[in-house]
Amino acid sequence: MSDAPGRPMKYPYTISAKIAQFPFKFYVQNQWIWRYWMIGIAVATPVFYKIHKLSNSPENVSKWAEKRKQEAAGHH
Question: Which of 9, 58, 69, 76 lies at a 20 to 30 A Cα distance from 28?
Fold first, then answer.
């Protein structure tokens, strides 16, 4: 079984045919936005993971639960 079709459509009219024939490699190699987008995701992922772990730690969750309880008591 081959990876690519032997004869691609001359005018791809379906979405899947358009996606299959889109020159992704060309755009990734020749446009700066794709490289910086991938670098940005790689740099931001550990930062967001650390923020997520800190905000969802048991100490922080209990602290915010206590704050919400005090705020709800003030409204009654």
Answer: 9
